[in-house]
Design goal:
mainly alpha, globular, 2 domains, about 130 residues
């Protein structure tokens, strides 16, 4: 029996290493297959209420940019608590796909204190 346990442990270790390697390599392989776009895409995470208006505003901003960037609206969950949780998890996890977001006014201080909500730089405000 001890030999079998050692064999199982070695097999489990190999599977664990293979799984870890797959997790590390997956994003790299996906990046190789993605198209290289020279137009920056800004992800705009918005509340579910009014999502259609946010999507329309995103399109207006994209069109007005003259091709300098595209704004893609992404809808957060309906519940305010779930919205906050998703944003906080993404931001705490350094999710670089989150560029713009709508915030409930009660989260502003919390997000600013954490360094997640920053003012628009003056040179870009216009």
């Amino acid at each position: 029996m001890p030999r079998q346990r050692g064999h199982r442990r070695a097999h489990a270790t190999r599977i664990g290493v293979l799984a870890a390697a797959t997790l590390v390599a997956s994003p790299l392989l996906a990046a190789c297959g993605s198209s290289d776009s020279s137009t920056p895409v800004l992800s705009f995470y918005t509340a579910a209420d009014g999502a259609e208006q946010y999507a329309a505003a995103s399109q207006v901003c994209s069109d007005a940019s003259g091709g300098r960037y595209t704004v893609e609206q992404r809808t957060l969950p309906k519940s305010a608590n779930d919205q906050r949780l998703q944003l906080a998890r993404r931001l705490a996890g350094n999710d670089d796909s989150l560029d713009l977001m709508t915030l409930d006014v009660v989260w502003t201080a919390e997000f600013a204190e954490a360094g997640w909500a920053l003012p628009v730089p003056e040179d870009l405000a216009a």
